[in-house]
Structures are given as structure tokens and as C-alpha cells.
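Q: What would this chain look like folded?
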Amino acid sequence: GTLATGYIPSELTSLTSLERFNMGFMGLGCTIPTELGSMTNLQILELQGNNLSGSIPSELALLTNLEYFSLYMNDLTGTIPT
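A: My prediction, written as C-alpha cells:
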């Protein structure tokens, strides 16, 4: 079963020591929360295969440890922040 449907729970963004965040193919239909930018230890961020919309938050440029970032199969607009 799916652990989260519809949105990324804000409580997850308080896990600042988390290194891998995988919510790919979870049925999400929201925007990417700006709070993900506070998860500065992330090395892997997988949000592919959802129905995410809107732009990619500029706060994600704060994820300087990020090695793998997957957003394919979504409805996002704009550019990837650097």
C-alpha cells in the first residue's frame, strides 16, 4: 500500500539528517514543498511518477549534498534551481 497519498507530509521535512527521500510513484498530486530545502543532508531525492505540479522551489538549491534527483513523469514547469 501507499504510505502517503495526495501530498508530501510536512512532518517529513523535519528529518534534517535524512540522506535518502524516495516518494516516487506514490500518487502525489501537489506542489513540491519549499521546506524540502531544509533537508540539507539529502543525497538522493526521488519524486518521479507522481502528479506534482507548479515550479521546482528555488530552496532546493540548498541541497548541496544531492547526488541524484529524479522528477520525471510529473507536471512541473520551469527550470531546476542551481
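The chain has no helices and five strands.
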